[in-house]
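Cross-posted from the bioinformatics board.
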Amino acid sequence: MANQGLPIWEVFIRSKNGLEHRHVGSLHAADAEMALENARDVYTRREEGVSLWVVESKHITASNPEHQGELFEPAQDKVYRHPTFYKLPDELEHM
Amino acid sequence: MKEKLYQYLLMLGDNSMILGHRLSELCGHGPSLETDIALTNHSLDLFGQVRSYFQYAAEVKGGEATEDSVAFLRYERDYLNTILVEQPNTDFAHVIGRQFLFDAYHLPLLEQLMESNDETIAAIAAKSIKESRYHLRFSSSWVKRLGDGTDESHQKMQAAINHLFPFIHELFRETPIEKEMKELGIGADLSLIKERFDEKIKEVFAEATLEIPQIPSRQVNGKIGIHTEQMGFILAELQYMQRAYPNMTW
Amino acid sequence: MNTQDLEKKFQDRIDAGEKIEPKDWMPEKYRKTHIRQISQHAHSEIVGMLPEGNWISRAPSLRRKVALLAKVQDEGGHGLYLYSAAETLGISRDELFNQLHTGKAKYSSIFNYPALTWADIGAIGWLVDGAAIINQVMLTRTSFGPYARAMVRICKEESFHQRQGYEILLTLCNGTEVQKAMAQDALNRWWWPSLMMFGPRDEESPNTAQSVKWKIKRKTNDELRQQFVDNTIPQAEILGITVPDPDLKWNEERGHYDFGAIDWSEFWNVVKGNGPCNKERLAARNAAWDNGAWVREAALAHSEKQAKREELKQAI
């Protein structure tokens, strides 16, 4: 048991209401309550946040960098999803 | 009356200072980085409270008094903290046990002080109470973790509680100054705190599978300045610079 | 793709200023170098808590005490951020600690010197943090994403550390003769070890070329050391204390200060474990870890019990 370290948790902070939670780092804790308290003590010492999420790292499924091509590059030529694709007369100032 | 208010402020501030001192001894030596950082946060909260109380105490005392002269330049008999907070960091169970017992007393104390007739005390309590609420949450969760963890941790936690419990009675034994401050609406009514304290202990110990010790209280009188043999060593460190290099600015 | 092509593509990405993330392909040597460097950096932070931590209980005023507590605590936090960055490379914090505790891993030798007076707390903040920040600012742009992000956070938090130390010395230098002598004595003892913090001279630093290629380093040890001396001398002049180096003088032509030769035999001797406090530092870290073992075990056991109880509840 001595060799079994405490699990890793990822920490997300909402810096103020209106903004999304952002990943800020990780820490070790035995349970969710301890993870939340540790996150508060480690990552919000300088008023960094108003809300915290912690999630055990093992529950995160990450995409494989090798699949970057098939996952993300097909979006590159879908220029019609961006407003600049559409040609409008110059006199139309706002749309 | 001024002198009594000053003494009362010392009682409040000294508890925070000596406990903060004990916690500060652990900085860099905690059982994990996360708990190390957490305990230092507790210490910083307590020293923040100390500064507020002692700045006010210096004002009440008048003359040349400052927060530092109040903190560092008294004789041992003039420190009025309870014996509980000067107990050493024997192991992590003692650290958590001491913290929990103090927090369970401190939170209801601050709740009352928020209503104090003395505006400064009320303001300090209003600020400190948020810290104290977190401290109690933190120490309660650790009492449960250690009490209901492994056999070893259970034994260590129970042993720590058995050692510390005889010191809690002093928290609730009213001194003449506390009585007078209560009657003036400045200080707290300790009997009301005791009820809340007992409830909290019962609740947390039940979850932690710990027994409430049936041990006679110890005859201690920190609140009137009679300390344990530990206190001289605490002050030797705390006062070292001010005593070795008197009258200098740091 | 064969390894050679992968390495070429990898280097191209770094040259183009792209960051490398943990799951990306990377040369084994890049991974190993980073684990070594990031963990050494992390160890330095937490061993660095000890000499200063030693003075928390004796800080001369409440204001100084809370500042020092917060600073030493930050170092613990910085160690934690760095261990987290190293862990993304597939090594556990426990294993990294084990390397530290058994003496297998190194940490910055500066922390093997004792903090003997209150002025040393000033000198550590001013000189040691001053030297560290030069390195750390450079590292905010390093190629490995988690390391760079940890450094950004650390640099932001560190900004008060050096000022804290300098202010302590400034107060001493404006104080009594005893205080001023205390400040001078601290500078005398910390000056040379601070210069050694940047590591061996360039010609004796074989890894520099590879580190520059991977953008772990953007400047050489000697360049950083020169930058530190140039920054620090005017600050010493404001304090009115003297750097213990008779050869120190401004070189108009170079636009830099010239300084005397460093005693590298002392440096290597401390690295090898023979500094004034190597044994005490390691003993303190080992004691903290060993005394905490039952606590960490208890926390795990409790969480397992809780999880089982939760399962039972669900089953009913």
